[in-house]
Specification:
single chain; 362 residues; alpha/beta; DHBP synthase; Rossmann fold; 2 domains; 12-stranded mixed beta sheet; 5-stranded parallel beta sheet; 10 helices; 31% helix
Length: 362
């Protein structure tokens, strides 16, 4: 395995091009597509998060993505396509009936499929493994860019490695200014969490490797035998899917994740915040709206949304981490938002952001 520091760093003079998220400007899309075909890097919005894009069939462009993100080469990259024909160009032994049923329900959308990789696809898109992760985004800017480029676009989240994913163009610039050639600013992303990753390399036992924008219960209506089995790997372990590292989506401040009965959790968060404050540390609180009055005097609060509105909490999660980082907090306290529906994806992101620092108050 190689790290970004083993190479000369990739640098560029970043240009920001504003595009309408619903009706993207053809000239700006064409400029970005020309950059993709030339081997450069373009950050662009999808419905989940912003992606850092390069030609998925260009080994050198893929290397530039790893360099710009400071990403270990053991962490594979998702290829983004605009049509099922492009998917079939990247993968072999595709379970066509299963993919057809999934496509009818979820594509384009926040679902990534892990399949067997075609021989002509560079192996550095997949950490040298014989697999490839493919997604068909629904965002008009992403679709327009892929079609104008004429090639599938490899695009991990547009942030430096292990940082919270970027949900605005400003987040991209915070991490990747002068490491990406063009940023297409299409405003805020709508979902705010990455795609669900579904492994179909063994069609008899489909496995969700990363919960995300497409929910487990919805997938089970199409594939009743699908299983949820996320992995938590060290950074030197190769994976068939991105987003499998234990340390991921992390702010600069240390996160502590609380779980258990709600009011016991809020009391434990209050006591932990007081202990940090007595040591002279600045505390951040990443919590639901209704939690705020319980913890009003115990740190810098970033409210994510109403307790029962997991879409809002998911949408605001990474932006909240970045906002608390900007206020120079030393530690961020947050809590479990349940494990069903979008709660599974939230738990996964918070567990990785906290590097497994869980405080179970049961």
């Amino acid at each position: 395995m190689m790290y970004w520091s083993d190479f000369v760093s990739y640098s560029a003079k970043t240009r920001v091009l504003t595009v309408d998220p619903y009706h993207p400007d053809e000239a700006n899309i064409q400029t970005a597509a020309d950059m993709i075909r030339a081997g450069g890097l373009v950050a662009f919005p999808t419905e989940t998060v912003y992606g850092l894009g390069g030609n998925a069939l260009d080994t050198h462009a893929l290397e530039r993505i790893y360099l710009a993100k400071e990403r270990p080469t053991s962490d594979p990259i998702i290829a983004h396509v605009a049509t099922l024909d492009q998917l079939n160009q990247l993968a072999i032994h595709v379970p066509k009936d299963i993919v057809k049923r999934l496509a009818e329900q979820f594509l384009p959308g926040a679902l990534t499929l892990v399949l067997k990789r075609a021989p002509h696809v560079p192996d550095n898109i997949a950490a040298g493994l014989p697999t490839i992760a493919v997604r068909m985004p629904a965002h008009p800017v992403a679709k327009a860019l892929i079609l104008a480029s004429g090639v599938p676009i490899a695009a991990p989240s547009a942030n430096t490695f292990t940082r919270p994913s970027a949900t605005t163009a400003q987040h991209v610039l915070e991490d990747l200014q002068d490491r990406v050639d063009i940023v297409l600013d299409g405003g805020e992303t709508s979902i705010g969490l990455e795609s669900t990753v579904l492994d179909l390399t063994n069609p008899d036992t489909p496995i969700i490797l990363r919960p995300g924008g497409v929910l487990l219960d919805d997938l089970r209506r199409v594939l009743p035998n699908v299983q949820l089995a996320p992995r938590y790997l060290a950074t030197d372990e190769a994976s068939s899917s991105p987003g499998q590292m234990l340390k991921h989506y992390s702010p600069r401040a240390k996160i502590k994740l609380f779980t258990g009965p709600l009011y016991s959790v809020l009391l434990a968060m209050k006591e932990t915040a007081q202990a940090h404050q007595k040591r002279g540390e600045k505390v951040g609180l990443l919590i639901a709206n209704e939690d705020c009055h319980h913890l009003a005097d115990y740190g810098v609060i970033h409210a994510l949304g109403k307790r029962d509105d997991l879409k809002a909490i998911s949408h605001n999660l990474f932006a909240g981490m970045r906002q608390l980082d900007s206020q120079k907090v030393d530690v961020i306290l947050t809590r479990d938002f349940g494990r069903s529906g979008l709660g599974a994806a939230l738990w996964d992101r918070l567990l990785r952001a906290s590097e497994g620092r869980i405080i179970d108050v049961q």
